[in-house]
Amino acid sequence: MGDPDNAFIPTLETWNNSIYAGIGNYVDGARIYRSTDGDVWTKVNADGFNHGNLLSAIMDFHPFGGQLYATTLDDRIPSLQTAEIWRSLDGITWTQSGNPGLGHAHNTGFFEMTEFGGQLYVGSYNTTDGAEIYRTADGVNWNLVLDSALGFGDPNNISIWGMYSYDGFVWAGTQNANGAQVWRSADGADWNIYRDYAPLDPNITGINHFFVFNNILHWFGMDANEGASVTRRPNDILTETFIGFTGDPNDIWYSFNTVVAGGLLYGGTRNVVSGGALWYTANGINLTQIGLDGFGNVDNFAIYALTFKDYLYIGLSTNNGLKGMEIWRRLIVNDFGITNKTLPSGKQGESYSTQLESAGGTKPYSYRLVKGDLPQGMELPPTGELKGTPQKSGDFQLVVEVQDSFKKVSRAQRVFTLKIVAGVSTGMGGITILPKTGADLFN
């Protein structure tokens, strides 16, 4: 970005037709850069949100309630500055969300956010009292989730690193030197431990990211001894853990972001010996590396951040303060989208139903009408079943959008013409359908 002190890049996000880069900078403080084309980037926040290098990094972006939220971290050792959360309506002007530390002065960082049950959740980093989870319905008033207080009762849970919503639960992963933990809740208030690595594999000391691929929940585990792990959860009975997934024990953890594009899952690794690497998988099990370690420079020690907007964008973090982080991109054809080519015609006054279908991305899909009006009596719920009893005839121009359920959401649109053939009112609240000519006696 023209400043070699911009050393690392924990997160990338695509929102409202722009790309946002969250930067770590130990000299000037956390920075957010914005680009509409991927070529020209503009800084859109005050350094460290007016704290300078006391807040050294932007850790996550998340859209919620029509605004983009950003979490911050004091990445110094020891961490002393209380962290903050900021939000923006336009991606340019930022205002603080909640109080510093969300009311806890020892919260020196906030990590991954997720939306569940109409509220935004975030986990904290707190090496003094233990990490905690907070949630908000309006982006202003944040409340402590009491079950998570003081590290779920264990102050060695110093961070709630990863958070995700899936399968009717909100999930949280901790960082704990004695063995990481995975927790989940069906209502966001009452939490139960789902997997405790202390007795299973205490070398896994952090769960830094959740994602869903091929309808299976996965999470990344940090392991400084054997190499980072990926756990796949096909169901609540069987879990499979892959240790040293890439085959290199120096890959001690995986990226904070993952992206699905062109039917493939992309992620990165952190490796201070040979450099971070970019990987993809088609089945969630077998990995293929793209490019060289560190993209040809060992100082590029980690690929934490990924996003997709026409291109696959990745952020390379550096160990060398004289060099600075980098963003690379590669053109990828994304096959995600609605597969219906047309909509069947309907008849005024008769029940109508058709199901929209999609391919690519991560199921389940969610649909919405973004332009045009349905005839009175019809609806398009998020499930994609266009249904109802149309009370008006004509040709209705519709633009329908589908989005997948991946954390870095993919969106695609298709234009349809819905034709409703006319009928004649009986005057008794019913409709008499005309012959197949569809002639309208009143026109």
CATH architecture of the largest domain: 7 Propeller
CATH superfamily of the largest domain: YVTN repeat-like/Quinoprotein amine dehydrogenase
At the third CATH level, what is the topology name of the largest domain? Answer: Methylamine Dehydrogenase, Chain H
Strand count: 39
Quickly count the domains: 2
Low-pLDDT residue spans = 425-443
* Helix/strand structural class: mainly beta
Individual helix count: 2
How big is the Rg? 24 Å
Helix content: under 10%
Query: If you average the pLDDT, what whole number results?
Result: 90
> Per DSSP, what share of the residues sits in E-state strands of 2 or more residues?
over 45%
Instruction: Give the terminus-to-terminus CA distance.
Output: 63 Å
Characterize the largest beta sheet: strand count, sense, and whether it forms a barrel: 5 strands, antiparallel
CATH class of the largest domain: Mainly Beta
Q: Name the overall outline.
A: globular
